[in-house]
Write a structure and sequence with these properties.
Blueprint: E1 8-9, H1 20-30, E2 34-38, E3 44-49, H2 50-58, H3 68-71, E4 73-74, E5 79-80, H4 85-95, E6 99-103, E7 109-114, H5 115-121, H6 124-135
Parallel strand pairs: 5-6
Antiparallel strand pairs: 1-7, 2-3, 3-4, 6-7
Helix pairs in contact: 4-6
Length: 139
Amino acid sequence: MEIRELMTKDPACCSPSDSVKEAASLMASNDCGQIPVIDADGGLVGVITDRDIACRCVAQGKSAETKVEEIMSSSPVTVTIDASVAECCKKMEENQVRRLPVVDDAGKCCGIVSQADIARHASEHETGDLVREVSEPTR
């Protein structure tokens, strides 16, 4: 099974110049904890997570008008649209992340895959391994 079969297609995205408030609103309206950050051409330049907002914005006393580019995670780990579930799980495990942006051959964001997507579609064994590895204390 390829990631294209289980990913969320066309996820809500924001730009680096959007405010943290706009990104948080997208998270709330799309019931998600990560928003891909794309440039004007649709290329992935980063991601912003609910944790980024809490730790890099709120905890540091920054305002809701802070630009996404100031607190986003640059150079995110990604997976390609034709990757296998096993490849995706390996990347999630190695990087201890619960979500990965999915990119096409041109580096444009075309989806997002979460640990929950894996749990709904992969075997119990793959899911169990993924949850265990991602949840290990930081090495």
